[in-house]
Design a protein that fits this description.
By secondary structure, this protein is mainly alpha-helical. The protein has a domain of 66 residues. It is built from 3 helices and no strands. 11% of the residues are buried.
Length: 103
């Protein structure tokens, strides 16, 4: 496999510029963990509602919204940084044809 460390787009394996970015970039782990904790909080909240504990259910729903929202916001923030880096790379290398983003 060729070294593509200087080119942010993996041309050799995909035509989509950001395919798998969320899973293979380690800096997105914070966002993925936040989303997972949000889903877990929602499951706990639904369990609490089923057992008749409204207060714990409401707290769980609020935690789910906050954690999942923060996780998705982190992933979006990291994606915007990747897009900015890609655009900067294309500005620095005008000889390479620009591929419009697909994400």
């Amino acid at each position: 496999m060729p070294n593509t460390s200087r080119d942010p787009v993996d041309h050799s394996r995909t035509y989509r510029q950001y395919a798998g970015e969320t899973m293979k970039a380690g800096k997105n782990a914070v966002g993925l963990i936040g989303v997972a904790l949000g889903v877990l909080s929602l499951v706990i909240a639904l369990f609490s509602f089923a057992n008749g504990s409204r207060t714990a259910g409401i707290v769980g729903v609020i935690m789910a919204v906050v954690l999942a929202g923060a996780g998705f916001a982190w992933i979006r923030y990291r994606h915007q940084k990747v897009v900015a880096k890609t655009e900067e790379w294309y500005r620095d290398h005008p000889e390479v044809p620009y591929e419009p983003p697909t994400a």
